Amino acid sequence: MDVFLQTLIAGLLKGGLYTLIGIGMSLIMGVMGIINLAHGQLMMVAMYIAFVLSTIGLDPYLALLVAMPALFLLGSLIARYLLSPLIAADTILPENQVLMTVGIGMVLTEVVRLIFKSDYKYITTSYSNASFFLGNISFSVALSYAFGIALLFTLVMFWLLLKTDLGRCIRATAQDRQAALLMGINTGRITVITFGLGAALAGAAGTLLAPVSWPTISAFPLGGEWPSAASSRWPSAFRSAGSVSDCVVPISPWRPWL
Fold first, then answer.
1. What does the DSSP assignment read for 61-112?
2. Residues of the domain holding 53
3. Any idea what the CATH number is for the domain that residue 223 is in?
4. How far apart are CA 75 and CA 192, in angstroms?
5. Looking at residue 39, what DSSP letter applies?
6. Cα separation of 60 and 49, whole Å?
7. Which tens digit of pLDDT belongs to each residue from 54-90?
8. Is residue 52 situated within a structural domain?
9. Residues near 106 by Cβ (< 8 Å), separated by ≥ 6?
10. Is residue 254 part of a domain?
11. How does pLDDT run across 181-203, given as a tens digit for each residue?
């Protein structure tokens, strides 16, 4: 029984990080209608940002204050100058838009390889290998911190989508882009912001993983360390067709409007 509970707790703690990645992918898929195959590489970039900042003594979790805005900016630039022109062109097939994200991922991977080489990088903190016990069940301190922060970001994202004008615009664009445009919503701007938010969430997941994993170049198509963190959400992303709630609860009555 203890082994089962230990496995369950470990899965729940890591699942919180997977949820951040899945929400980012589903936001982009729901609004832009494309699968972002560079999502893993964006997470990888955030891990390397955390690594660089750790070399000057900044805690990896405090690096969130740098990594998330940096990934939001990077994602917004990618959407504005690389993806939006393809989406706007009616003559370009959706498959070509997906291939663009593959190319973006390859460029990000090779740029990071050029700067950091392909060897493993390590981020050592006082809590990386620390744990505490509740009964006979051990909890990783780093993963517990990461789970709490991931849960906070998830709640904030749901609040943003449900309670703010920006969130309503995002949901309207995801439901019907043409109708949203007729209602006066700047769908092009919403697309850029949404991709930036998805990239920022991937950046948050990568930064939260940094103390318990190691930044490296991966040979997997998704790129970055812990490729399973992104690939594990693919079934949910495909099934939910952009539903954010399905990334948290796979069977959700909120589909498909959230």
1. TTTHHHHHHHHHHHHHHHIIIIIHHHHH-TTS-HHHHHHHHHHHHHHHHHHH
2. 2-248
3. 1.10.3470
4. 8
5. H
6. 9
7. 999 899 899 999 999 999 999 999 999 999 888 877 6
8. yes
9. none
10. no
11. 999 999 999 999 999 999 999 99
